[in-house]
Amino acid sequence: QVQLIESGGGSVQPGGSLRLSCAASGLTFNWYVGAWFRQVPGKEREFVATISRNGDIKYYGDSVKVRVTISRDNAKKTMNMEMDNLKPADTAVYHCAAENTTTTSQNANDYHYWGQGTQVTVSS
Predict the structure, then answer these.
(1) Displacement of CA 70 from its chain's centroid (Å)
(2) How far is CA 26 from CA 4, 23, 95, in A?
(3) How many CB atoms within 10 Å of residue 1?
(4) First-last CA distance in the chain
(5) CA angle 57-101-44, nearest 5°?
(6) Tell me, what's the pLDDT at 43?
(7) Residue 81 contacts residue 73 (beta carbons within 8 Å)
(8) Distance from C-alpha of 55 to C-alpha of 41, rounded to nearest angstrom
(9) Residue (of 10, 8, 13) closest to 87 by Cα position
(10) What are the residues facing 51 on neighbouring strands?
(11) Do 50 and 58 contact (CB within 8 A), yes or no?
């Protein structure tokens, strides 16, 4: 049974930083492309970042580019995302996702496995 479990969310002030983590189990992690998406109530999931199976290819959403760094540790079956200079507009539930494919994707519909999400709130 594949499981993705996010952690690291919380409440921070504007300009602060957070490190989100996604722990995977039940899958051969290095066969899977990984990604982070975020969602606010009433809106579709928004692409944040994606990383290739071996971590050499990374893409970021325009709204977070420069402020976010995605990484992975295949030996530990984890995927992380460092978020800096957080803004109130970054407030959302952040989900990690994984798909057994060779190609990264910014489309949520391309990912089969999802975590339950972790809340990030940016407020003064």
Answers:
(1) 7
(2) 9, 10, 18
(3) 5
(4) 40
(5) 80
(6) 95
(7) no
(8) 31
(9) 13
(10) 34, 58
(11) yes
Q: Count of alpha carbons within 13 Å of 37, Cβ hemisphere only?
A: 21
Digitized pLDDT (tens) for each residue of the chain, 124 residues in all: 999 999 999 999 999 999 999 999 999 999 999 999 999 999 999 999 999 999 999 999 999 999 999 999 999 999 999 999 999 999 999 999 999 999 999 999 999 999 999 999 999 9
Residues 6+ apart with CB under 8 A from 69: 81, 82
Nearest-angstrom CA–CA distance, 69 and 48: 10
Which among 58, 117, 41, 124 has a CA at the least distance from the CA of 87?
Answer: 124
Of the candidates 74, 23, 81, 24, which has an alpha carbon nearest to the alpha carbon of residue 53?
Answer: 74
Residue found by looking up tokens 């499981």 in the block: 3
Whose CA is closest to 36, among 25, 20, 24? Answer: 20
User: Could you give the CA distance from residue 113 to residue 124 in angstroms, rounded to a whole number?
Assistant: 34
> Which residue do the tokens 């978020």 mark?
83
